[in-house]
Design goal:
The protein is an alpha+beta fold. It is about 25% helix and about 15% strand. It has six helices and seven strands; from the N terminus they run βββββααββαααα. The strands form three sheets. The chain has a three-stranded antiparallel beta sheet, with no helix packed on it. A two-stranded antiparallel ribbon has the order 1-2. The protein is globular.
Length: about 180
């Protein structure tokens, strides 16, 4: 558990992402026309989150902005993402159906990469540099050693899960096909 942390990530395109335990639980996007903040309202994150037991200010709402016009309804020609009430299930269904999930895989992978890099960064008291092409930290063997680990629980074992729900039989497994 990480009670106190401050992480800054600078992307090659100049976007800066800041994670800090003192921030409200949610995401704040800042741009040239103002900001938008979104959260899951009163829904909390996992129980291992150090802030999970702190009260939530439900009066502020899960979606707000610096200017109400930013949140005005989209026009009929606006791009909309399909809805999904369960991203995990949608992803598994997409594998079986051999179609794209609601959340684009490349974007999801990069988002998870940032989360994992941040978590690893919390373990050290020095700056880390991530190389997205090599998917490795630059010049830090200790941080790189933390990029993989055994599943904490059997139910987190991806290959075991795929076998249990029949995906390995339908799709084949890189562990059994030599791919």
């Amino acid at each position: 558990m990480h009670r106190n942390y401050h992480i800054e990530m600078l992307y090659p395109n100049g976007v800066r992402m800041i994670l800090d335990n003192s921030f409200e639980n949610g995401l704040r996007f800042e741009g040239t026309e103002g900001w938008v903040f979104c959260s899951r309202g009163a829904v909390r994150v996992t129980s291992s989150d150090g802030n999970a037991n702190e009260p939530v200010d439900a009066t502020r709402g899960p979606l707000r902005s610096s200017d109400r016009k930013i949140l005005s309804p989209l026009g009929a020609d606006a791009k909309r993402w399909p809805a999904s009430s369960n991203h995990y299930l949608n992803w598994l269904e997409s594998i079986v159906a051999r179609r794209d999930p609601v959340a684009p895989v490349d974007q999801a992978a990069r988002s998870l990469e940032a989360c994992a890099a941040a978590w690893i960064g919390m373990k050290f008291n020095h700056k880390l540099t991530w190389n997205p092409e090599k998917e490795a930290f630059v010049g830090d063997d200790q941080a790189n050693a933390m990029r993989t680990r055994e599943p904490r629980k059997a139910e987190y074992d991806f290959i075991r899960l795929m076998k249990r729900i029949g995906l390995v039989q339908r799709l084949g497994s890189p562990h059994t096909t030599g791919q």
